[in-house]
Amino acid sequence: MMDSLLKLLEFGQSYWIDNLTRRMIKNGELKHRVEEQGLGGVTSNPSIFHKAIANSDDYDPQIETLLGEGRSKIEIYEALVTTDIQDACDILHPVYKERKGQDGFVSLEVSPYLAHDTEGSIQEARRLWQTVDRPNLFIKIPGTTAGVPAIEELLFEGININITLLFSIDHYQAVAEAYLRALERRLEAGQAVENIASVASFFLSRIDVLADQLLGHRIPPEGRSPSAPHPENLRGKVAIANAKLAYQRFKEILQSERWKTLAGKGAQVQRMLWASTSTKNPAYRDVMYVEPLIGPYTVNTLPEKTIKAFADHGIVKETVEENIEESRKVFADLEKIGIDLNLVTAQLENEGVQKFIDPYDALLAMLEAKCEHRQSRQTMKPLQETAQQLRRLVIRMTTEAGSGHPTSCLSCAEIVTALFFHEMRWDPSDPKARNVDAFILSKGHAAPILWAALWEAKAINEDPLSLRKWGSSLEGHPTPNNPWVKVATGSLGQGLAAANGIALANRLDDVDARIYCLLGDGECSEGSVWEAAQFASLNHLSNLVAIVDVNALAQSDPAPYQHDTDVFSRRFQSFGWEAITVDGHDLGAILSALEQAKKTGPTAIIAKTEKGKGVSFLEGKEGWHGKPLNREEMEKALAELGEDQAVAPVDSRRVGHYTPPPQSKPAPPLPVNYSLGEQIATRDGFGSALKKLGEFLPELVVLDGDVKNSTRTEYFAEAYPDRFFESYIAEQNMAGAALGLAAYGKIACATSFACFLTRAYDFIRMAGHSRPAHLIFCGSHAGVSIGEDGPSQMGLEDLAMFRAVSGSTILYPCDGVSAEHLTQQATKTQGIVYIRTTRGKTPVIYNNDEPFSIGGSKTLRTSKEDQFTIIAAGITVHEALVAYEQLKKGGILTRIIDAYSIKPLDEETLAKAAHETQGLLTVEDHWLDGGLGDAVAATVCGQVPVYRLAITAEPRSGKPEELLERYGISRQAIVQKILELMD
User: Fold this and answer.
1) Residue 376 confidence (pLDDT)
2) Which residue is catalytic, options 349, 731, 820, 879?
């Protein structure tokens, strides 16, 4: 199969390879090619070495040694490269001797940054020549204007030169002249010339790439050019024509008396070398730059693909002097159609320099990263031992508990170790510290490894074996019962949204801390993750780092994309994040990624891991999710994980100096200025109050779900844009971010239509478990009273939803005055507060200075003769008041109570009404189940009958008053119900 390559020598051509790797040196491949396949030389360049070093670990031992010697990255680069060059020279030395110094060379390039620096090229070439110290070395110097004098000087000094980046015949002539002058100078100086070697590397395929492009510009859209010469006929012909005519110039030199004199003194021919001989256009033959250029005193440097192709079907005959007239015609035709080949070759020379600079820079950058990685390995052992120790403790904890998720912890042991024992700035003695980095465990079922890390870092003193036991703060999923946990997680898909809120709080408080959120690959199926990703990008949360533990296994089956980390990278990148993919068990790679994450953001680190890592019978095995090991399995696992180890120490570190914001002075009673009877929507009163409160409460932060002009948070947004965050139509992230803000000291207020908050209910219920100091939700446009928009926009479940949240407060104002005062009360109230507002305008019924308290109510109509009590809230208060007047005209007196505080209810007032009247009638713009009526019935506990008017049928579009009537909560419905009760 190699006959074609071997036959080239018969026609005076040597073939070289344009690839060199340490692996081909060490495994004998290069030697085999030289001894069995006729290979005559090797060229190298930064691109070749970049691939060689980046794609293998063959260089790592030498890198480690050089690092130990304190070498710089440039010194390391040169040491790696010159070692390979020396070894390759030694392998090719027998060829060099056999062919009497005319072949068997290995080429090494000076820095491409010296292409236009004569003296710099000379100095570096001398140094490299001395370092390699091999007679069959070629130093590569580009044939630029600045390169020509350097080439002459170096050849004069006896240094072999491979002149590269030749595109034009004139430049070839210049470097050929430099070779002749150098030899003549040596003879004049009494020095030998027979051991001086040089090749002139003439580039091929790059010429056709550019020439074909320029020719294409001259072909009409319909196809063939109407006039000769036809540009389409010249495609793929320019490079070969250029080379053949250069060879003719080469022959003229050999026939000159000047050369014959030098040859008589033993001088060697400066051979023509055909470079860049791979076929770039797939439409062309794969050996088109080999077959037409075979002839005496030539070298063809081939990539491996072209070597294989030529060995398979290449035709060998002397061709370099065929079709010379046709080549001249190609040049003439180019000129006729307006293509100046001198300009083409000048452009190619400049591009060629850049094409060497780019891989050279990439090589140094890659080498720097590789060096950093190797350096970090010296500090890796304590961290790796720490990761193993965390694994051991997790196994023991979950076995002792008899439950838990050990395999989900084992997969992220290195990630958690890197964060807690190296990267994060935190103080294990102070869980309340504000100016520290934050960690959110979004994959909350991995709580045992969080507890293990806190234990080993001496941040907690609770026995880790108390995991999941009653009374222990080391619960099955993280909750704020443990002081290190700021938000409860475990319902997947929530951590990143909370991290967004923490990042916003840090920004507002000028705390330059980072937030790390650890997610699982399975939970990334949750849409809330991508809501949070969008929000983080839009708000430029550069200090946010999401780490995805891609362990490929979910609870019951493999995760959707298993180990395809590119899926996660592309998703985060599509939202505007930086994405870094790493081996999640390579601590050096993890630390490098964490370092890179400091430079830009938000950043997602996609960590490929194995579930159950470290224990052979768990690793990558299905069926172990949420299953602890029994005692026998535990002992087997611990034996594999090794003995207990000392963990890496944790130094207490803070993020700069932090001064807590001054305590807000209590806001004075809001100045409310409405007239009795004035028509004001409660949503307007809410918005007005927020704006007023913003002046007194710098910690008040508002988020809205793309409806600020309806919820009226636009008033606050206009006044305090730095404390308003548009969440768009992503209510889950809005709720989670609000929780994060609240967890870090803000009074967070998240608003949307009441119906849309149901989307975020899982976040709201988990916020209840997080027990924030102040977290307000406002749902506007509640109930059928919104009118024509129809049932999709009618919040009818919200009261039931928030009533079910432990410790929550629910406020439902009925007019502008109560809306403003209750909004202020919400900012003072601990925990989660829900304010329900109405779309339509209602008359003001309260004086501006009317006080409103949490757990209170207002008895609007009462007498000793009251027969029934009507309890309403919000919109139905006004229906009840009109009904009162109608009933009064009929001689029926009723008590009217505005139950503006639905949770907690005014138990005293309700008990009194239950005692003094025959029954209670609740009226609410809400489904029958779970709202005001259920709350009242539960409060009076059967002391008196409780009758309920509420929505019981599927609503339709219509005018508000029509819908109130149609669904039985209007003034007429109230009157009718009371009359029925009187019968």
Assistant:
1) 59
2) 731
